[in-house]
Amino acid sequence: MNSLLIEEPPLQVLPSLACKVGLNEAIVLQQFHYWLQRSNNVQDGYKWIYNTYQNWNKQFPFWGEHTLRRAINSLEKQGYLISANFNKAGFDKTKWYRIDYPKLLDRRCVQNGQTSRPDWPDGTGQNGQTNTNRLPENNKQETNSNNVERQTAPASKLEQATEIVGYLNKRVGTHYRATTRKTQTLIKARLNEGFTVDDFKRVIDNKADEWLGDRKMEKYLRPETLFGTKFEGYLNERSTPRVGGDGIVVGTDYAKLAKEQDEAYQKSLEDLGEVHDKELPW
Description:
- With 282 residues, this protein is of the alpha+beta class.
- The chain has helices at residues 15-21, 23-36, 53-57, 65-78, 101-106, 137-172, 181-192, 197-211, 223-226, 231-235, 254-272; strands spanning 41-43, 46-50, 81-84, 96-99, 109-111, 114-116.
- The strands form two sheets. A four-stranded antiparallel sheet has the order 1-2-4-3. A two-stranded antiparallel ribbon has the order 5-6.
């Protein structure tokens, strides 16, 4: 049989839908509708789907990315697609989409003197049935995994950034924010290179030991210096704590040190036991 004829799950579209929104737009809208019926992402009472343009484009290999972008933008301008951003990480600009089904139902397409409309605005019908095998199984799994990865990874990296910046602030007494775009970009870049949260803490400790108490260098205990292009060099430095004139390491938390010394003193008294006057040698 001719290999160009249907022998694989097809992308289907109703002529009435293509008449209403445009052919390319109808293909995109039908595919989005397919995934919306399987989405578990509910926001504001609606189901939403999301993906990068690059990953969406894998589902339309017969188009270039610019063609896909034009079709999606056209649907947004016409009001059939509604977009939003529900990403947990502020730097993640991936768009979320849902279909405005009531709008799709209201508008009619007049063709050859007759009015027709799709039979699936609420997602319950499509020529009497819904195609549940629209893509080869491996593509379906890949898209689902991409969605899951994009849903969880940004949150994980934001949590890592929060832990890293919190450690920096506690260690050197600063008040940097993990939500700052520049700081997030630097941390994300290093994490993408394979460095860990413990590596960040090691860099912070190394440079805090070296620079705390040095008026010229303390100002460089900041994310843009510590987490920049010299990160790996800082990580591999051997920490050499600076000792002040009082014999205590520069940067020591004096309140914590005093508390520890007091606890040690109280413990020593408990170990010795209470000494009564009659037991004294004088």
